[in-house]
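Same chain as my last thread, 307 residues:
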Amino acid sequence: MIKRIKHSLEHLIDKSSQNKTSIAEENLLDDFAFTQYQNSKWNEISMGNPDEVSRNIYEDIQLRIGKKKTFNPYLKYMAAASILFLVGLGFFFKPSLPSEKQLSFKTSSIPKSIKLSDGSKIYLAANSSFQYPEKFEGDERKVSLLKGNAFFEIAKDKKHPFIIASGEIKTRVVGTSFHIQLSKSKCEVIVVTGKVKVTSKGQSVDLVPNEEALFHSQKLTKQLADTSFLVNWYATDVTLNQTTLKHVIAILQYKYGVSFQYDNEHVLATPLTVFIKKDASLENVLEQINYITNLKFKVYGEIVKVN
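reply #2:
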């Protein structure tokens, strides 16, 4: 049965490439592709962004068969789904990739850390989510920061680069340490040690210690990093001497995965010295700031209001 289906598809695809198919045959190919799209499953970790991959496949098909590009909303997905199905039937040869069992690591109100199979250590901020393989296979070590912020201490392995997907950017390293801070509007990569390469949408920047990559409004730029972030404050006690509330809030937002709301921006200039223990809860830190400044902080889930 598989051979019969394969033979029929080859015949129709060959006719379509020569513009010899009837309307009914083209409809048959489209119906087949749409059915495969509906039933297909996509693994973004191993296969990339589905929109980009399917669009590239569709555009390549259009160029090959010489037809006018008419972007029906479903066609780009049909192309990707049908190609995946044809690969499964053996139309195209592709070496089998090792199957990596994917695990999830999430935090609630307290930062936590995890050690990966290669010895790398990930410090995940509060209210964050991270995905990684149970054991690394293949030529690259691939993981994903799905939500929130993290500090990475990557085990050195020149033969197997470490790649982190976070939103619309990819960070490639061999062995180094750095922060990645992911929000709905932007993503930041701040290097503490070693060298890091950050890419997105055809853009690329190389970073060394004390440098930061910022992806915002579809643009990737490089700038100097705030010195406060040149330490792993997830795993280290931190003293912020004679600083401002604005500076302290920046650290708390990344460490605890919260956002601050305030009616009067002048409070951000309030001077203070704060000691933040590595395992302190957000509430304990806010109590300390309350005592020093007489400001009132109220926590509502992932939002902190300043009165």
